[in-house]
Predict the 3D structure of the following.
Amino acid sequence: MTPGHTAPERHYCYSEALFVNHNSKRKSYFIVGGAMTVSIKEIARICGVSIGTVDRALNNRPGISPKTKEKILKVAKEKNYRPDYRAQSLVKGKTKTIGVVLFDLKNRSFALLMNAIESELRRTGYSLHLTLTDKDKKKEIESIKYLIDRKVDGIILFSVNQGKEFNTFLNSINIPIVTIFNHVSDQWHHIGVQERKAMQDAVKHTISKGYKRFVFICPPLSLLGKVNIYTQHERLKGFQDGLKEFNMLDQCIIIKEKDYLKKVAEGNFVGKEKTAILCTCDAHALEVMRFFKDQKVNIPGEIGIMGFDNIDVLRYVEPKLTTVEYPINEIGIRAVESLVCKLEKGTFPSVPLLDYKIIPGESI
């Protein structure tokens, strides 16, 4: 401190929180530095009402008149009231946090999904605890255990595990779980999309454009039977359904290899019957498009390409990629809504498989 100067006044407020322990009540206080804050008890004193009435107003519960509620909310705002979640978690046995188990954030769709989940959690008063598994079954189990140790109230799970043993493990956790994308079993509330029908319609779209040969690119299929790839397997079924409908199943090639571009190069698809390449994600479709551009192949004159997801970066791509719009934001929102409904009302809402939309472009 500079000699001759006094330190600026700093205000603190002691906010009272109630902890319950074996039928006895022990009062504990916490300090919030900087701006002044106020406790529910103090708001009740100022407004001349009970603590329970203040609680109903702050948490938008019934049993309070509009006039009293307005008065309480005004005082809370003026006094800079902020809830003490640590105290609430000890009293109510809830932390107001939701765990998310996801593959990674490399895929642009996953980043968009997490943005939707975080925004909806914040809107409903919950916070997020994210774990990433890199599509590793053991890491997924470790991630779930990590979240349980941190007392999350529920979990949104994009799983690579499946089977009886995994179901038994999830049952042992004893907290609400919502699975997204990959279906684990009918035992768990699931938020998903009409994957099979979406890819079937994608095939129909390409056939309507005059294509005679079809290439299906889906590297995760190399893991079929080893890990949970439910969504990718459903898209394969839809691809086959679409071709069967037109008796064209013998006119397709399925590429499962991780180095799918090498297989595309070996396929020598240009110059033969009009060929469409359908990919199970936009990222793969963009790599295929770049490959053919480097080869000076005209798209769609010599080869057609279709993606799946409709990620936001497609607006910068030429030619415009034909794709399937995946309701990624709605998946995140519905997952949060379902979990919060279960936590606060005791039941999961009924959520049908979500819809999709073919987005016509210039690549087919």
